[in-house]
Amino acid sequence: MSTPRHYSPLDRLLxxxxxxxxTSLGPARAERDNPAGELRDPALDDSDRRHAAGxxxxxxxxxxxxxxxxxxxxxxxxxxxxxxxxEHAAQEExxxxxxCAERLQELGSRPSLFNPLFYAGSYxxxxxxxxxxxxxxxxxxxxxxRQVEAHxxxxxGNLPAGDQRSRAIIRTMKADEARHADNAELAGAxxxxxxxxxxxxxxxxxxxxxxxxx
Length: 214
Prior knowledge:
α2 (46-76) packs across α7 and α4 packs antiparallel against α5. It is globular and about 50 Å long. It has one domain (10-21, 65-213): Up-down Bundle (Ferritin), CATH 1.20.1260. By secondary structure, it is an all-alpha fold. The longest helix is centred in the N-terminal third of the chain and has 31 residues, at 46-76. The chain has helices at 9-25, 46-76, 80-106, 115-131, 134-158, 164-186, 196-213. It is 74% helix and 0% strand. The relative contact order is 0.17.
């Protein structure tokens, strides 16, 4: 039987740095099949294609932020069950990241140039949330996922009418986000007090304005 490997602080720093670079700049690999499957790629005019790409770039950047947030929270989670829950959610967010990247490529576009910056900021927020304790850690998950659900709903209504490939991806993402929030609530999440949810919403709005264009 092999013994668990113990990492030094430098090892952990290098692992975190590698994850940050891989998530924000490298290609993600999904464990699940793309929900768009064999759906036909619609013939979109240039304006609709740019708009769909802008929305999917926002979603891709949102998944970069989610990865960073969960990895940061898991790094300081005090309970092994909480840590495992965060790591499982992070893996599903990796699926989302890969699907959004695939759709961006199909639309002839690319991820946001600011993804490394968004990753760093979200990781710092995740660390700060995790250091407050697991109840607050899980509360942050709930609030994050509920806000993501709302903006995914908005995107479902704003995508070009014929873009069913993007819609299939977003619907699956939305179902996953709702399940993450529900699981965190069942695990004992605390309700975040104001102004934290409001500040999270403002940060999300800024991210969406930047990622849609750049």
